[in-house]
Design goal:
Helix content: 40-55%
Largest sheet: 4 strands, parallel
Strand content: 5-15%
Number of helices: 11
Mean pLDDT: 93
CATH class of the largest domain: Alpha Beta
Low-confidence stretches: none
Radius of gyration: 20 Å
Number of strands: 10
Length: 311
């Protein structure tokens, strides 16, 4: 019988879905992916995490709870630093310990990703591959193949972005961490409503992990890598859209600071900042989105404003 690897459909899964799933599948292992976020998962997560924690972390714990009896291992890497002189949110550093304390009987596959301490991604995958009983050569082949598949997925996503930019419809950029952007409770309702209103939606998850981050003009001192990536996306593509929607979960500390900087320093474009919490309602969300779309359309008509053409 194949070993079953559980992967919570939350947090960094949405940043590395192709790499993670294909690595294990390339080793001929079964993947057990938790379902899309629903009310039951959120309620379960609330039982494990204090109220002051962000909704995204509560959602993650709910996904772990779903997987706890359905697989042999759960994959939960610990991220500290993915680029030199920068950090990620401390939740990604603490997540292994949180899960270990809340679910002491779980068998967890874990590695540290900390560039400043010479703990590289490939080293982490070699570690867990050996823990599962595979040879160095088998692990290396599985990893290299997964990296190639990840690159192909990125190039496909980037091509789709180029096509969207060329659209003649109203274009709105939705900016959020991938785990918020694609979560069924957090970001998906926003995207679905905009598309229903015939808006072309540009998603901020088109990223290249090896690309240079450039958010000068918005912030020169911010050291949270994932927020800097979002700022870089805004700076690169803001001239091709009619408006920007920032999406965060309550009460995310890095987002609260970074999004405030964006609102203050990104000029000449309408920006809406939406924060989702446990009690967010579809009615209130739709009202805000409807108003934002109306504002953009009225402003465009009044100013006869056309966004930059993408070449």
């Amino acid at each position: 019988m194949k070993i079953k690897i559980g992967i919570p459909r939350a947090l960094l899964y949405y940043k590395y879905p192709t790499l993670w799933t294909n690595f294990f599948q390339n080793l001929n292992l079964d993947i057990v992916l938790s379902p899309k976020t629903n009310k039951e998962i959120i309620d379960k997560g609330n039982q494990y995490i204090i109220d002051e924690a962000c909704l995204s972390l509560k959602i993650f714990m709910g996904h772990v709870d779903y997987l706890k009896d359905k697989c042999d291992y759960i994959f939960i890497p610990r991220f500290a630093c993915v680029k030199e002189n920068e950090k990620v949110c401390t939740n990604f550093l603490a997540i292994y310990d949180l899960v270990r304390n809340c679910f002491p009987k779980l068998k967890i596959l874990n590695f540290n990703l900390d560039i400043e301490n010479n703990e590289e991604e490939i080293d982490g995958f070699i570690k867990i591959g050996k823990e599962l009983g595979f040879s160095y050569l088998e692990i290396l082949r599985a990893y290299e193949s997964a990296k190639s598949q990840e690159k192909a997925a990125f190039l496909n996503k980037k091509e789709m972005l180029k096509n969207k930019i060329k659209s003649a419809k109203l274009k709105i950029m939705v900016v959020a961490h991938p785990y918020n952007l694609h979560d069924e409770f957090v970001g998906k309702p926003i995207i679905k409503y905009l598309e229903k209103e015939d808006v072309t939606v540009l998603l901020s998850d088109v990223y290249d992990n090896q690309a240079k981050i450039d958010c000068t003009g918005i912030s020169n001192t911010l050291y949270w890598t994932y927020n800097k990536e979002l700022m870089t996306f805004i700076k690169r593509y803001k001239d091709y859209v009619d408006g920007i929607i920032l999406v965060s979960t309550f009460p995310c500390g890095p987002d609260s600071l970074a999004n405030e900087l964006i609102i203050r320093r990104v000029k000449n474009i309408p920006i809406s900042y939406i924060t989702i919490d446990n009690n967010s309602s579809d009615t209130g969300l739709i009202t805000r989105l409807e108003s934002f779309i109306d504002i953009i359309r009225i402003q465009k008509e009044r100013n006869n404003n056309h966004v930059k053409t993408y070449n």
